[in-house]
Request: fold
Amino acid sequence: MAQQVFESSFLLDRAVRCGEWMIRNQITDRMDANKGRSIRSYDADTKELRLTGNWMCGIMAASLCALYKRTSDKRYLDGAINAARYIMSLQVMDQTDWHFGAIREITPQSIEFAPRDATSAAWGLVWVAEATGESCYLERARLFADWLIEKGMYRGWPLYAIYMDPKLDNFYSRGSFQSGTGLFFYDLFRMTGDTKYIERGFLPIATIYRDDFIRDDGRLILERDPFTGKVTHAVEDDLQDLPQHALNDDFGVTMLIEASRFFDDKSFVEKAALFAHWAASIQEEDGGFVQGRIPSAVPMSEMYFRDLGEELDDDQLIAAADKALKKLVTMQWLDTGDPKLDGGFQGVYEGVEEKKWGRRCVNMRTSAYALMALLKAESDLADIWLGTHNKPFQDHRWIGMHDLVF
Reply:
C-alpha cells in the first residue's frame, strides 16, 4: 500500500473520478451498435474522438470490476458488463470459420486482430465472469483461449497480427509486449482448473519471455523473428527515441512474478527485477519517462515497481513506485468543464495531426492502467486485477479430502 505517499481517501477519490469518466462517456443506448464502447482517445482542442475496440474494452471492463469491488457501486459493474457485451459482439461465432473463437480488433466488421489485443478483451471477460458469477463470459473467454492455443500461437508464443482475408498476409513476429498473455492463461486456469492453459500457455510464455526477451542489462529485446530467432528490434542507447513497449510491458513483469510463485522458480522474478531496475535507472525526477512521451509507462511502472519491490523487499523499487505515483496523480484531468476530459488521464494522441505530444488528450490505455494502479496502491483489496491479486494456487490434495455425498 502507498499511504506513506498519499492518503487512501485521496487515491480512492481519484480512482472514482476515473471510473466516472469511463462510464459517463460509455455508449449505453441499446439501439446503438456501439453500446459498451467508451473513449479510446479524445483531443480536447480538435474534438477528435475515437472509441474503444477489443482490448481497451477489456481493460476498461477489468478496471471497472475492480472499482465495483472496492466501492460496491453497481454502476461500475454495469459498465463492465456493457463493455463485455461489446467484446462478445466482436467474437467470431461461426463454427465453420477457421477463426472461430477469435475476437475482432475494433468492430464486428473488422477483418483484423492482434492476438495480444484480443487476449486483453478475453481477459476482461474472465474478470466480468468472476465478478458476476455468470458463465457466459467465461465460456466466451475459453473459446478465445482455445483458438489461441490451437491456431494463434507458434512454438509457445502468440502470433503478432491476423488478417481474416486470404489475400492479406499475417504478421508472425514475436513481440515482447505479448508476454502478458501468459497471465491471462494463468487466470483462466484458476477459473477453470484446465491444465492445458498452464502447459500450452502460461509456462512456455513465461519461459520464453525470461530467456529470450530480457537482456542481462535489463533492457528489452522488443521483437524477434519467430522462425530464426534473430533480434529485429531492441532497446538501444538512444533513450529519447524509446517506443512505449520499452517501458510499458503490458503486464510482463506481473506475469513473471506469478510464474516465480507458481513454478517455485526464482529465475523468473530475478529476470523481471533486471528490467525493473533498468526502467528505474532512466526514470526522470518527476516520476515520468522520456519527457512525458510515454504516459502509459507511468501507471504501468508504478504497478511493477511496487509489486516487485514488495516481492523482493527492494527499497529502490518501492521508491521508484512512489515517484511514479506522484507523477500519475498530476496526469489526471480535473475540473476542465469538458466531460470527455475530466477524470481521464493524459495519454497519447491518436488523431490525424502529426504533433503527438503536449496535447490536451485522454487515452483509455493510460486511464485504465491508472485506475488499476490507484486501487492497488490505495488498498489491500484482493482479487481485483491480474494474477498477483488472484487467489494463490494450492493443490487440494494437500488440503484434504472432499466431503463427497454421492
Summary: The beta strands are 39-43, 49-51, 112-113, 153-154, 157-158, 162-163, 174-175, 221-224, 231-234, 361-363.
